[in-house]
Amino acid sequence: MLGQALKNPVTLPCTCANLRSASRAVTRHYNQELKREQIEITQFTILMALNIAGEIAQKDLAQLLEMDSTTLTRTLDLLKGHGWIGFKEGPTGVVNCSRLLRRGSKSISAQNLIGCEPRHD
Where would I find the beta strands (DSSP E) of the chain? Predict the structure, then answer.
């Protein structure tokens, strides 16, 4: 699919539009590759970020990934439902930190095509 899109690219008059089009093509390619793990690239990206960052506050993770808080919260809840990440309450009782769990680490370790080595903290 990505190969077809790159063989016959349509050039639009706007760099931003071309970049967005290329980004969607890359996203489709990675989603196809990740399908067997039942994860999408947007979720996988968060797992990789947590793999590198360790425990991180949600607002810091949102900044790192350039994601809005609502989208990140929804995706983190989904990842938690799969057992791939855990949350930690801060001193005020508010959940404000996320961390990668072993199951999430195993999910990303099979993805050598992306070049991510899991941490086992």
Answer: 56-57, 85-89, 95-100
Please report how many Cα atoms fall inside a 13 Å half-sphere around the Cα of residue 58, on the Cβ side. 20
Q: Going edge to edge, which strands form the sheet with 95-100?
A: 56-57, 95-100, 85-89
What's the mean pLDDT in 75-97? Answer: 82
What are the residues whose beta carbons fall under 8 Å from the beta carbon of 76, sequence distance 6 or more?
A: 46, 58, 85, 87, 98
Per-residue model confidence as pLDDT tens digits over 31-44? 988 888 788 889 98
What are the sequence ranges of the domains in the chain?
1-37, 40-115
Q: Is 81 helix (H, G, I), strand (E, B) or coil?
A: helix
Would you place residue 111 in the very low, low, confident or very high pLDDT band (cuts 50, 70, 90)? low
**Structure tokens that stand for 108 in this block:** 């990303």
Percent of the chain scoring above 90 in pLDDT:
21
Has domain 40-115 been given CATH number 1.10.10.10? yes
